[in-house]
Design a protein that fits this description.
globular; single chain; two-stranded antiparallel ribbon; 39% strand; alpha+beta
């Protein structure tokens, strides 16, 4: 009887150890969302468990991590689906959820939360076919995409930029289209347009481009899959980095000169709605 009890105790102990190891393994195998391409200044990652560390080129960014940059600091992350994320100074961005098995089969997912500051994103495969698979949440609004190069910025109370721009969420499109949603409704944003949401209980609206936050982008010449791939591989995805001339240790080319002209665009905002024709101001 004593021998049987000893064996039972050992078996139970082995099961407890196995479950503990399985739990630790699950945490260690959190999905990798991307890898750091470079860091300028001071940037750090905080894991879902609360551990914080400084990051450097080559470090993995996992699902659940929060990336924080200090003032005058920036970082860039190459996502596993081929996208690029350029994080601006004084920013806090969380990689809420990332799921990608190499295919666009409806299970892919890329969700972010932007608490303050801003970033520019050249999206990868996630969101190309299944638009709901890509989402950015901010304190007052959520944003979705339709295949795009876009910039999102959150101005918080008391921040240096709050002296120049109203507090709220801003989104600007360089290529493609985004939409901004609050509890009051949705606006669709096209290239060189800017959407703004002041609060969760206010309707978002299109506003003139705020040049204290964004810069005007050249109109795209070519669109399509090949162009998207070239853009993700070669684009300078943060104007601040261009000023610092520190992208991968290289001097970045100056932006080409160009003249913007008003264009008229007709698009279908959602199934069942009438097409909308609107003029895009330069």
């Amino acid at each position: 009887m004593g021998c049987d009890m000893d064996n039972l105790t050992k078996a139970l102990y082995s099961m407890v150890v196995a479950f503990a190891l399985a739990g630790n393994s699950g945490g260690a195998l959190a999905a990798i969302a991307g890898h750091v391409q470079f860091v300028y200044g001071t940037a750090q990652l905080t894991t879902a468990a609360g551990a914080t560390r400084k990051i450097q080129k080559g470090d993995a960014v996992n699902e659940g991590d929060t990336l924080t940059t200090a003032a005058a600091s920036s970082a860039q992350v190459k996502m596993e689906d081929g996208g690029l994320i350029a994080v601006r100074p004084d920013t806090r961005l969380k990689f809420d959820s990332f799921k990608f098995n190499g295919q666009q089969d409806g299970t892919e997912q890329s969700y972010f939360s932007l608490f303050k500051g801003g970033f520019r994103a050249v999206t990868g495969l996630i969101g190309r076919l299944n638009k709901s698979s890509y989402r950015i949440s901010t304190p007052v609004a959520s944003l979705g995409i339709r295949g795009t190069d876009h910039e999102t910025f959150v101005v918080t109370p008391g921040s240096p930029l709050a002296a120049k721009a109203p507090v709220g969420t801003y989104n600007k499109v360089n290529l493609g289209e985004t939409y901004m949603t609050t509890g009051k409704g949705t606006v669709f944003i096209l290239p060189n347009q800017m959407g703004f949401a002041a609060a969760a209980d206010q309707m978002p609206q299109l506003q003139p481009l705020n040049l204290d936050i964004f810069t005007v982008a050249p109109a795209p010449q070519v669109q399509g899959r090949k162009h998207d791939e070239e853009l993700r591989d070669n684009a300078v995805v943060d104007g601040i980095l261009q000023e610092q001339n520190i992208l991968l240790g290289s001097t970045l080319p100056a932006s080409p000169s160009f003249t913007l002209k008003p264009v008229t665009v007709t698009y279908q905002p959602a199934a069942g709605n009438f097409p909308i024709t609107q003029q895009i101001a330069p």
